[in-house]
Amino acid sequence: MMTALVGGALALTPLLAAAQTSAESAPASLAGQKPPAQKPPAKQQWKLLHSENFAGKLDPGKAPWVREAYDNPFDTVMDDNGKWFHNDYGDAWDEQLNSFATYRKEFPVGEDGWLTASLSARDWNKDGTIEKPPSITNGTAGKSTVARLDVPDHTGGAIFRPTEALPDQYRIEYKLKTLDFGGKRNGTIDYDNRVNGYSKDGCKTQHPWGEGSRSPGWEGDASAPYCEWQDVRAGKYGYNGFHYLSIVDFADPAPRNNHFWHYRRKVLMDSFAQHPDRVGTGTGGRVCNAKTNEYYDYKDSSFNTVNMWISGLPNWAPGQGGLAGNSQWFMTSCSNGVAEQQLSSAAELQPELMPNEDYTFAIERDATGYTLEASGNFARAGQQTLRFHRDFIVDNNPIWHYNVKPDEYDGRYNNTLVQGKDLNGKAEWPDQWPKDSAYPDSFVIGDLYTNVYEGSASLTDIKLFVPKPGKK
Question: Are the C-beta atoms of 154 and 203 separated by less than 8 Å?
C-alpha cells in the first residue's frame, strides 16, 4: 500500500513496486531542501446539509445478503474479477476466484437515505452460508450513540459512503470513537488473543488477490493452496489498517480487494499498522511529532498512525508481475504541509484514551484543491488540529482524477495503462484521464479491503457541509 524506509534509504515495498516514480520526478524536498508550504485558501464558510448521529435504528428492514455475480464491475483492470490478475497468474487464478462466493449487503442510513452502509462477506465453501459476516450496527461509546463496524474476518468489508455524488465543493467530517484494527496496546501487538488485530484462528492470506507473481512472501504460483499465499497477519505482508476518510473517483463504492483501491483514490487519511516482520531491520517509515516538528521512526511508535496523503500519477506500464497503482505523497507538519514521496505519518492515535476522547477527521474540496484535517489528542504531540491544503496541481504533479467537472481539466495527463510484460495475457486501457472527463467525488469510511484488514471501530456525527451562499 505504501512506500517504506529500509535500512535508512527510500525504497518501495513490493506492494507498490508497480507505482514507482523515478527519483528524478521527486520534489526538491527529497533532496534535502524543504520548499515553502502552499498558502492556504481563504477559509470557506460552511452550512450544514446533512448530519447523522446513529440514534435511529440501523437496517430496520434487514437488507438481504446478495451473491456477487461480477456482472457490474467498476472497471476491468483490478476489480475483483479484473483482467490484470488473470493476465499475471493465468487460468489457475480463475479457479481460485471461483473457489468461494462473495456476498454483498447495502442499506440506506440517515435523513432521506443520504448515507449508504455497504458490506461484503465471503462464503468459503459456496454453501450459501457466510461463516463470519461483517456488520454495521447501533451502539454506544462513552456518552455517544454510534455506528459500530465489526469485521471479524479479513475477507469481509464494511464502509459508509454517500448515496449520491458529493457536491463540487464540500466538507465531510465525523468523529471516530473507538478503533481496533491493529497496532499496539500497552506496548504489544499481541493482545486479546489476537495478533495485530487479527484473530489467531487458521491461516490469513491475501488469496486470491496477491501482490503479483514475482513479489516476495510466496512462490507466485496461483494454484497454491490458500495458506501458501501471502500472509497478512505476519511476515513481509503483515499489516492491518483502517480508512479514516478517503475520497474516490467513482460512484457507489463498495468493499473490494486492496489492489483495486490503489488506482481509485484521490486523497485519503488512513492507518497502516505494520507487523514488525514487515518493518524488518528498517525504520518502517517515519512519524511526525507535530509539537516539535521532528520525525521519529515508525518502529518506535505504537503503530496507530495517521497518514494524510494524496494519490498522484501512476506508473503507466508496470513490469512483469507488477500491479497498477498511483504514486503516493504524504503531508505532515514536519514537511511544512508539503506532500512528499516518502512514507510519513502526520500523527499517532492513542486508542487507549477512546471513547472518552475521540478524533475528528475531515476533508474539504474547494475551487483550488483539497484540505485534509485531523484533530485530537495525539501521542507525543498532545491536542492538535492538523490541517493541510493541496492544490489540484503542484509543480506539474496532479492529484489523481481531481476534476469533478470536465471544465476543470484540459486532458494534459491522459495516457494508456499498459499490462505488456505478464506471461498469461496482455492488455491496454486507453484514455485513463482524457479531456472532457469528469470524476465526481465519493467518500469512504471504514474497511474497504476484502483480502486484508480485520477488527472493529465505532463512529458518530457524520456531517456534510456545503458553502454558504456568497461567503468565503
Answer: no
- The number of distinct structural domains making up the chain is 1
Query: Is 29 part of a structural domain of the chain?
Result: no
pTM assigned to the model: 0.92
In this structure, is residue 32 part of a structural domain? Answer: no
Q: Rounded CA gap, 64 and 67, in Å?
A: 10
Look at the alpha carbons of 228, 232, 235, 237 in this order and tell me if their dihedral is positive or negative: positive
pLDDT tens digit sequence for 164-188: 999 999 999 999 999 999 999 999 9
pLDDT tens for 30-87 read 334 455 556 666 778 999 999 999 999 999 999 999 999 999 888 999 999 999 999 9
DSSP per position, 233-268: SSSTT-EEEEEEEEEESSSS---B-HHHHTTTEEEE
In this structure, is residue 30 part of a structural domain?
A: no
- Overall average pLDDT of the 10-15 stretch: 31
Q: How many CA atoms lie within 13 A of 172 on its CB side?
A: 25
Q: Is the pLDDT of residue 218 over 50?
A: yes
Strands, E, within 63-166: which ranges? 66-67, 101-109, 115-123, 135-141, 144-151, 157-162
Residue 101: how many CB atoms within 10 A of its CB? 17
Question: Residue 114 is part of which domain span?
Answer: 3-21+37-467
Q: Looking at the domain assignment, is residue 454 inside a domain? A: yes
Q: Write the DSSP symbol of residue 338.
A: -
